[in-house]
Amino acid sequence: MKTLVLKFGGTSVGNIDRIKKVCKIIANYKKKKTKVLVISSAMSGVTNDLINKSKLVSNNFEKAEYDTLLSTGEQASCALIAGRLNHIGFKSRSWMSWQIPIISEGPHSGARINRVIVKNLNDYLKSGGIPIITGFQGVNNKFRLTTIGRSGSDATAIMLARYIKADECIIYTDVDGVYTTDPRQYKNAKKIKKISYDEMLEMASLGSKVMQPTSVQDAKLNNIDIQVKSSFINKSGTLITGSSKTFSNQIITGISSTKNDAKITIVGVKDRPGIAASIFKPLSKNLINVDMVVQNISLNGKETDLTFTIKSEDLKKTEKIIKQNKKLSYKKLSFDKDVSKVSIIGVGMISTPGITYRMFQALASKKINILVISTSEIKISVLISAKQVKKAVAVLHKEFKLD
Amino acid sequence: MKTLVLKFGGTSVGNIDRIKKVCKIIANYKKKKTKVLVISSAMSGVTNDLINKSKLVSNNFEKAEYDTLLSTGEQASCALIAGRLNHIGFKSRSWMSWQIPIISEGPHSGARINRVIVKNLNDYLKSGGIPIITGFQGVNNKFRLTTIGRSGSDATAIMLARYIKADECIIYTDVDGVYTTDPRQYKNAKKIKKISYDEMLEMASLGSKVMQPTSVQDAKLNNIDIQVKSSFINKSGTLITGSSKTFSNQIITGISSTKNDAKITIVGVKDRPGIAASIFKPLSKNLINVDMVVQNISLNGKETDLTFTIKSEDLKKTEKIIKQNKKLSYKKLSFDKDVSKVSIIGVGMISTPGITYRMFQALASKKINILVISTSEIKISVLISAKQVKKAVAVLHKEFKLD
User: Fold this and answer.
1) Pick from B20, B69, B79: CB nearest A69
2) Looking at domain B3-174, what is its CATH homologous superfamily?
């Protein structure tokens, strides 16, 4: 008998009508003689309301209590789902993390699921029951509730799928799958039927909002097939799986673009060994994430120009840190806030030469200037003017036959 | 070192400002080198909102899920209180029923606390911490959450006080104590300083809303001093304690009156052994609570009139049941919906003769007609026309020197 893990996000259970709809989806799987486990997020809005309450109580609300407070959201939605399934004639019950248990480790509000003891769940599944499991939370070795960060319910679903040895994990959300590029930005974007973990990881890291990179990484490590689907319309979604199962003659799978990037160039840095480290160490200490980095070749062996990108919100802080850096001698600092990173992603590029050339050629044909380039095995990213992102996505989408 | 249990009701923690106020009250006790345990209800409105959600999901919502759903209310309020106490510099944490544990037995939504394992709480108290404990709920031997009925948080507080061997249990609520009679109905009502468990039990059963009879009974059985106080104004409240500690020369402690009573008389019932049982058995089966009962002496040995009172809301159902009762032969059924029960309560009446006479005399002086009488060791109740209740309470309040 097949075992499925179904995960429903906050908007999927956002009100009582949606909870009823979700229960119909669950019931349909159950009728097909499938073992079904359900993971639910809190009803949308509930978590934010609880966060606001905590802020009113304290601007530095204690993390363990924060987790206890937020955990009530999933507890309530799971009880409502189980109650509804009972009402329409199915055997179902809610399971909180501490009842299973889902054991977590690490700090409050940023815990990780360590393991799941599935014995009781397995017995319940064998008896024909549908367990409704609280996402986003665990219980630690002090018997206290923890939460595992934003999108933690996805992580719960993947870990449950791993420990229960599920055949598939279906993530129900408010979009109907992963697209070749953001459909709100480019109307010819197409839904991707299958995508490899690595491609999805790049897509997620590069701006696609469908799944968090850490969840994709978890799925990859545990080799769990994930299907991303909409709980609002009944359509097939996107399967995220191992690259051996995603073979196609498509070279590029998708195109991502970011917003709110900023570029900094330090002109005329005195070139000496360890100079890059002395620039980036204080930034890293201040939790500023540096993305693309380019260092020009030092022609005279004495001075060089260093360019890197960060999130625009970190720009002021970064400027301050560089200016205060006494180990650093340079001529000029220059900034550009209106830049974006556009990336093409696809495992197909490993075996296909000339992709970089085709990308640059296509951008040049639309007079798009490339500021910085960075590449990995399965992606090429370019930094361009933010104003040209739409044009760039369109020309690349056509060039790599995604239309 | 003194150990106190403080219980805060829903209105006392009804919003964030009130939670902050409650934390000041707790902090004041803690500063006096007292061990303090706190029991909290859900923020007012939260429980009703959850109940409404369950009703939208199912008109017959499964009881175990109902308990799981409702339990989130206290979990959230306890986390907020603990978070606030941390913020103002106190060591505090929330404790859910399953973490302590508070072990319950009996059906979901109507469970009873069986015992409390206080070892961890005691260790925490010794370390100077303030435990904030979820009221109203327990965990059963199947490791599932249960709730213990309306006013269950009072029961939690009393059981905690018992197991932790507290010196006193203080119930913070939205009234500032127990009054000689309802102050909204009679402006000369006075706050009672001390009242015995038995008197409080009668008061609670007879319409005083301050505490549920079951909670008073629990306190009596475990000999726990309870103080009822307001969390809104800083005034001494009412101490509920053993009768040996409440001695005064007051004969009557308080006067209660009920609303929504109805009187039924079955005229000309064929008198035979067991006739009363055959009338009341089907009513009891249908969960209709019969209060006062009077059977006139059967003069001719053949027929009798039977009068009893019920809640007005049960009147139609009762009428139907009596009419369908084939074992019953009678001449006429008569109803009176506009009746109320007025009671005088006081341990002093045990040792003071003539109280009944004084009560009847006082009522007669105001031309108040007594329809039914019932008495116990420490109370006398009379059924009168609902229109005369105010007048009756006033004359009795004066007669027994409560003004």
Assistant:
1) B79
2) Acetylglutamate kinase-like (3.40.1160.10)
